[in-house]
Amino acid sequence: MPEDQGSSAPATAPAGKPYHAKRPHRKSRTGCRNCKARKVKCDEGRPVCHPCTVRGDKCVYLVAPPPARVSRSRTTSPASSSDSRPASTPAPASAFTPASSPDFVLVGRHADTITQQPQFIPSGHTQADMRLLWFYTTATYASFSTGQLKERSVDVVLRVNVVQQAFANPFLMNCILGLTAMHINHLGIPNLDISRSLEIQYRTKALESYRKAVEAADPATYPALLANSLMVCGLSTHIFRGEDARPFSFLDWMTLWKGIGAIINVTNFPQMFRTGIAALLFRPAVDMDASAHALPNYLLFMVASIKTDDPDHPLVPKYYKALKFLGSLYLELRNGFSHRLFLRIVTFLTYLPKPIIQAARERRPRALVILAHYLVFITFKARSCWWMDGIAGFEIPNIARLLGPAWAGLLRVPLAALRETDNRGVARLLLDDPGWDEPTDMFVEPVSPAGERELAIRALMEDDMAPEVQAYRARKLEVELC
Q1: Sorted alphabetically, which keywords does the UniProt record give (predicted)?
Q2: Mean pLDDT of 158-179
Q3: Of 99-113, 124-138, 297-311, which range is least confident?
């Protein structure tokens, strides 16, 4: 006969088997998504609970932990004990790297309630610092990522190793925070409360601390200096936009890119590999002969026609070398809008011979024509490198006005490219092939405005009511009811 429902223990136990009362436990109401789906008890360890750690699953929480909550994780790993860490202890990079969760997890009825922000503030930092660092590891880092290549995969380096170096080297932390503040304002996200004046303060502090670190030249800081030299190239692009914009800022910007090479020359490579920063050094090899054949004939003729009495004649070998590096972009473009093409575009300025940079600074026409054609390549919209936005549209007309009608024929393609609205139109101009189309077997899906990261960022903008954004919010806005 079945036992009475109100009984606390069975009347008898099966013969030969001792009775063990069921261990009482409190029902988990704020457990992770995976444990709820599996109907197992979640220990609610943050950022990764113990069951998900054991199974190697991605751990995603639907709601933020209660303010006074202390993790009950049965392990003592850094991932499961971050909530109990003293505020004065520097946080590990993983605490700011939501690698195992969606870009944004939104809870409640408003899109500005964000649960993926850091839950503590390390000593010496403000709440604004932590919001910026969170946004960097979620979105800003991607503007320096050129995708997955067999020789180079830097996403983890940018999100983890670089952040670890930043906590040990304040000048790098300042650069990350300044760059991210600029990114947030570039996107127009008011919810994160980063004003333009605060952006300027971060940027000023970043540039000043970087200058002092370069002057000190402490070998222990070389990995951080290398990472900083890359990011400062993005941070400094404010000189192309707004009130800070001034013609030919591009020439000063090139000098910053060449500074990366100067730091590489004094770098201790074993130290770079130990810190994980070495992946940032990768540049794709250039086939100089094949690149020369990929160049437009009119650019080659521009150099070949230099006479012996021309002031540019001593620079002819350097001009040819610069053109061959430019030709590697044309050669790669024939294969479509690949990750490797965009890596070549970003690293092009680091290849330029110093005499060509000096010639451009002296406003020599041929050097400026070469740079105008390079600027066309950074107009491609197949990757979200937001800090390059607007540079070509600002500087190509400046070059055309300076050189005047005598050089208008050699600037026809750069000026025409500014009127194109899509990648294919720009590529057809560069390749001088009206029928060119991207090879289907080499196609790489560009980052679209409707991509997951872009939707997550747009979901933070209260005034963005586009259907795809509302659909994204509907998926992410979840309220814990049981």
Answers
A1: Nucleus
A2: 94
A3: 99-113
